[in-house]
Amino acid sequence: MNISTSNDATSSVICTDYGSTTLKITSTLADGGNVTCTSDSAATASTTSTFGYQRLTSIKLSKPDTFIKTPGTKTVISTRFLKMTMDMKSNCADSDTKQSLISIEYFLNIINQICIGFTTIYMNWLCLSTGLTKTSLHAWLVTLGFSFLMAEAIMCHYKSNILTCNFPRATKTTIHWVLQVLGGGLGITGTLVKCIQKGFLIVTVHGKLGFAAFILCFISMISGLAALYSQKLKQFLSPLLNKTSHNLLGLITFVLALTAQYYGYETGFFVRKTTEDFRILMKFITLMTLILSSVGPLKSLYHKLMNVKKNYWPQKLLPPFRVILAGKENSSLRFSMFVIAVLFDLIRGKRDRYNIKTNVD
């Protein structure tokens, strides 16, 4: 590394230019000239060049047209170069890691779309070929409703969803509630058809899980309507709590519905019409759909819960409840007191106590 100059000057402020192959430092001299420091060992980066400003110890240039070779100057410049090089490498590593994770999520979403498509196409073929009566009608409706439409609905806001990633948020919201209404309607109808056929006699694991999904689907759709108009309802319920509860209910409903379908492959309808190996394959595909479709909603739920914790945790509760929560009581009592305190203030209309944000996604 060499530093060249043409006049006497003292440099104190430098501008670092992070280029693609070299790192150049330029300082303006007293008479308007420049001091240039160039290093060929600077880290290279494939990202867009950025500019940063750092302050170095003043360097006295005493002889024109010579190179500075003092040990102190070399130490200062070498230290700065090392720090900037390490920062650049760290930023590049973080960027590469994030990009790799995004690529993996896109790839897994493609796999998930294939699983959803395979299940939907196969169930349509099986049910339509056997005639839409009794169990085949039930299986056809719940597959279209829960496994296809609801799965796509809960992934609408997922950033790595290849089908909706380029749509604006308003469009994603519209697609979400349209698919959810259609999917929930078909799922509820399919479950109700089977319940009527069985006289509401539910004894199997498949039936119990399906009926639980049937009930929660009703509740989830009502909460979805409230979430859709969260800004208009903010005088009665915080949009944060509104959308968090809808996210949680929708996810639980989907998990129960897909788990019910998993056990549905053990019923007599599939045992008579498919082989054991194929049923194992369908179970595996259903589990893959359940896990991969839940990634986006789980990430969204996590961020919402962090906001709930930030806005509602003990330091923002009424003093008596803060004392209770700070004590040594068991965790169940502390959580119960926390919920009661929040509901108490919400009923009294004291939402401003919590500094609740209204522009929560």
TrEMBL record:
EC number of the protein: 7.2.1.3
InterPro entries: CYB561D1/2, Cyt_b561/ferric_Rdtase_TM
UniProt cross-references to SMART domains, sorted A to Z: B561
Membrane-spanning residues: 106-125, 137-156, 177-203, 209-228, 248-265, 280-302
Cofactor names: heme b
A GO CC annotation given for this chain: membrane
Subcellular location: Membrane
Secretion signal span: none
Chief place where the protein resides: membrane
Coiled-coil stretches: none
Membrane topology designation: Multi-pass membrane protein
Entry keyword set: Electron transport, Heme, Iron, Membrane, Metal-binding, Transmembrane, Transmembrane helix, Transport
GO molecular-function terms, A-Z: metal ion binding; transmembrane ascorbate ferrireductase activity; transmembrane monodehydroascorbate reductase activity
Cytochrome b561 domain span: 107-301
Protein name (record): ascorbate ferrireductase (transmembrane)
